[in-house]
Amino acid sequence: FFWRVGVVVYPHMQTSRIMFRNRLLGGIYKKGIKQVFFIFDTESVHNHVVQVGERLGKTSIGKKLTRSFFYYENSMLEQAIDGVMYKNPIGLAAGFDKDARLIQILPHVGFGFEEVGSVTAKACDGNPQPRLWRIPEKKALRVYYGLKNKGAEFIAHSLTNKNFDIPIGISIAKTNCRETLDTQKGIDDYLQSYKFFEHIGEYITINISCPNTFGGEPFTKPQKLKRLLAALQTLRYDKPIYLKISPDLSLNTLDEIVELVQQYDIQGFVASNLTKKHQYGNGGLSGKPVQEISLRQVEYIYKRTAGLKTIIGCGGVFCARDAYKKIRAGASLVQLITGMIYEGPQLISSINAGLVELLQRDGFTHISEAVGVDVKM
C-alpha cells in the first residue's frame, strides 16, 4: 500500500494524496513510534535515528524507500537565494546532524537544504551527560550538548569530493573551551574552522549564539563581533555567510548587530538559536517556547534591513502555518528540528504541500511573492 502511494510522490502528485499519506504516517508515528521513542533517553534515541538514517543513505534501496514514503516537490517552492538554488524552503537546522552523517538521506526525506554542525576547530566531547531532555508539555527540547562534534578537519575530510543533492550549509562555532575565552584566540578558532570549508558546502553560518558553552556568547557583544566579521572578510570565499543569533538579544544589541552585518559582506541571519530564558535548568530551549520570539525577530530584522538581507527563520515550526508565518514575516528559508521530533519525519512534506495550498489560497504563484508581505516598512 505505502509503496503504491509512494511511487507517485513526485512533482505532479495531487496535494490531497500527499496529505492523506502524511496523515497516515503521522498517526503511525505519534501513536506508535513516538510513544516508544519517548520511553528512552533522548540522546540515545537521537543517536539511533542518526545511525539508521546514515545506513539508509548508503544504499540506493534505502534512499528510494525513504523517498517513496516522504518526498514531495512543487515548482512554486523553488527559489534562488544568494546564488544558491533550493527546491523548497524547509531545511534541517544545525544541531541534529552534528558530524554530517545524514547528507545522503535527507534529500529523500524531502528537505530543501541542511545545515550541519555546529562545527568547531577542535573536536569536542561536549558537556557531561545527560544533556538532552524532552519537555512534552511545552513541545520543547532542553539542549545542553555543548557543541559536541568531531571537529572541522574530520568533518571537512568526510565531505570532501562528495556530491550533495541539496544545498549544504556549514554552521561554525567557537570551540567550547577555556582557551577561546580570549577574544583573539576565539577569532582564530572561528577562522581555523572556516578555512577547512572553502570548497565545501553552499553557505557558511557563523554561530555566535550557542547558549551551552564555556564563557557564554562573547561575540554577541558588538565590539567583539566587529573584530570577528572584519577577520572573516579577509578570508572571504565565494559563498554566502549568515550570522546565527540568539532570540534573547535586547533590541539595542540586535540593532548594533544588524548595523555591523550591513557594514560587512554578510548576506543575512539565522533567527534564531535556543532561548536561555526558562526555568528548567542548564541548557537552552527549542521548539514552541522559541516560536513567537523568533517570529518577532525575523519581522524586526526584515523591517530593519528593508528586506535586503536574507533571513532563515528557525524556531517552533510544527506545521505549514508556522513556516508560512515566518515567510510572511520576512524569512526566505525556514529551519526546524524539534517539530520533526514531535510530529514525525513526514512533517517536511506536510509543510511543503501545505505551503503550496496557503500560497494558492492567498493568490501567490511563487513563494518569493510571500516573503515579508506582513511587514510594514
Structure notes:
The termini are far apart. The strands form three sheets. Strands 3-4-7-8-9-10-12-13 form an eight-stranded parallel β-barrel, surrounded by four helices. Strands 5-6-11 form a three-stranded antiparallel sheet. A two-stranded antiparallel sheet has the order 1-2. It is built from 13 helices and 13 strands. Helix 8 (222-233) runs parallel beside helix 9 (251-263). Residues 1-13 have low confidence and may be disordered. The longest helix is centred in the first third of the chain and has 23 residues, at 15-37. The protein has helices spanning 2-6, 15-37, 42-56, 60-70, 106-109, 152-159, 183-196, 222-233, 251-263, 288-304, 320-329, 338-343, 347-361; strands spanning 79-81, 84-86, 90-92, 113-119, 132-135, 140-143, 168-172, 203-207, 241-245, 268-271, 284-287, 310-314, 333-336. It is of the alpha/beta class.
Q: What sequence of helices (H) and strands (E) makes up the elements?
A: HHHHEEEHEEEHEHEHEHEEHEHEHH
Helix content: 40-55%
H/I helix tally:
13
Spatial gap, N to C terminus: 50 Å
Cα-based radius of gyration, to the nearest Å: 19 Å
Instruction: List low-pLDDT spans.
Output: 1-13
> How large a portion of the residues is in β-strands, by DSSP E?
5-15%
**Order of adjacent strands in the largest pleated sheet:** 3-4-7-8-9-10-12-13
Q: Could you report the average pLDDT, rounded to the nearest whole number?
A: 94
Number of strands: 13
Task: Give the overall silhouette.
Answer: globular
